Backbone:
């Protein structure tokens, strides 16, 4: 297949699918804001980092395992590719059990750690507990999505993601309004969505289309670490959103209280959707780049990366232009109480915060590009820089100097500095 056509096939379907997947939380945000007001919105915003951790863990395992699977498949290594899938499934099961136990025993402790006050404590705890109990569905849905996509069926992966997301939106409305289930209804709808995605993807196995299956294999610590290492950029891409939210929530609580946290919740949830576009793009190039790498086609690898950079530039311009022009309207969608202070804080923040979109997109695709060609270290460096090393100190430092304005600009500053480092790493590894 022509490189551009193959690139367009995989990336378009994955971007659409990830947009649908991101609607899990965005739908919650919209319906919670309408049904439960600013307190419900603040409780949801405090709980979202845990969702990022669960989804990030699922992507770490799934993307790491699927990358190895794709390379081995292109090299006709039949038994080894089955072993990779089996070991990835074993790891997924272990993490699922860990999350479920955490939900059963530690939901209250996590709620305290995330800084919930008396006004939102109960809602936040309920959301966290149910979310963690549904973690096996999130993790195994991610596992199947990545392996089915790398097995040459991005259409089915996209269908599963979109169907799950649309189901979530419908169930959100039903549970929150007609059934009056409150925050429990919102998180129940979110938890059911990946179950629907798994059911759709199971048809792939019933029809015998899969070229991977479970086999008996021993436990290998080195292979487990290799699988997880290959998925670290995907984990950090998700975790960075959660880490930023925890830090920003704490700073915002001290600056503006629950109103500020609710205002940031609007921006944070919109950010999850925007980041999902670039995550979908990176997941789209991964199977293509890994296959070309396994086949030794270096020219095609560079061609795919060039297409990805151009796509990031175009999408970033369109996203920011839309956000800038429609700022007040976008914020008002989530400001059901007409809170004037919330509107002012969120509108200003949106225009400053989203100046980072182009840099963030470049960083995400560069990190996954490195792991797709079996060079995990530079990919991990890029991911950790943007997700942990830069954003946390910059948030405290810049908010201390310039208050809210400094806080909003910390994210663009961190992404810009990471993009500079990512470009240097790309040029160095391209010449290697």
Residues:
């Amino acid at each position: 297949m022509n490189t551009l056509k193959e690139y367009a096939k995989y990336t378009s379907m994955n971007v659409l699918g990830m947009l649908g997947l991101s609607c899990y939380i965005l739908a919650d945000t919209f319906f919670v804001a309408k049904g439960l007001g600013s307190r419900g919105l603040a409780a949801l915003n405090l709980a979202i980092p845990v969702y990022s951790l669960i989804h990030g863990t699922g992507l770490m395992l799934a993307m790491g395992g699927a990358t190895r699977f794709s390379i081995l498949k292109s090299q006709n290594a039949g038994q080894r590719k089955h072993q990779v899938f089996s070991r990835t499934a074993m790891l997924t099961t272990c993490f699922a059990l860990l999350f479920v136990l955490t939900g059963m025993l530690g939901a209250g402790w996590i709620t305290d750690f995330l800084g919930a006050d008396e006004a939102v404590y109960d809602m936040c705890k309920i959301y966290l507990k149910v979310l963690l109990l549904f973690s096996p569905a999130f993790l195994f849905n991610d596992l199947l999505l990545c392996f089915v996509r790398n097995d040459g069926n991005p259409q089915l992966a996209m269908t599963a993601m979109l169907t799950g997301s649309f189901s979530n939106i419908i169930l959100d409305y039903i549970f929150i309004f007609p059934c009056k289930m409150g925050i429990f209804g919102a998180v129940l709808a979110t938890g059911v969505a990946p179950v629907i995605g798994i059911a759709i993807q199971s048809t792939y196995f019933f029809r015998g289309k899969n070229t991977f299956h479970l086999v008996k294999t021993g436990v290998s610590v080195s292979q487990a670490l290799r699988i997880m290492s290959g998925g670290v950029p995907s984990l950090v891409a998700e975790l960075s959103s959660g880490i930023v939210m925890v830090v920003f929530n704490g700073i915002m609580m001290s600056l503006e209280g629950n109103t500020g946290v609710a205002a940031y919740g609007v921006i944070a949830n919109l950010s999850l959707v925007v980041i999902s576009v670039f995550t979908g793009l990176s997941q789209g190039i991964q199977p293509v780049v890994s296959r070309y790498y396994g086949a030794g086609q270096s020219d095609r690898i560079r061609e795919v990366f060039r297409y990805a950079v151009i796509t990031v530039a175009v999408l970033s311009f369109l996203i920011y232009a839309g956000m800038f022009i429609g700022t007040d309207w976008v914020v008002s969608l989530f400001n059901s109480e007409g809170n004037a202070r919330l509107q002012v804080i969120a509108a200003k923040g949106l225009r400053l915060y989203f100046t980072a979109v182009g840099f963030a997109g470049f960083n995400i695709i560069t990190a996954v590009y490195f792991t797709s060609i079996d060079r995990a270290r530079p990919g991990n460096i890029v991911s950790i820089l943007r997700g942990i090393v830069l954003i946390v100190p910059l948030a405290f430092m810049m908010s201390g100097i310039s208050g809210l304005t400094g806080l909003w600009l910390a994210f663009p500053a961190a992404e810009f500095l990471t993009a500079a480092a990512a470009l240097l790493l790309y040029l160095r590894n391209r010449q290697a």
About this structure: The chain has 14 helices and no strands. Residues 3-431 form one domain.
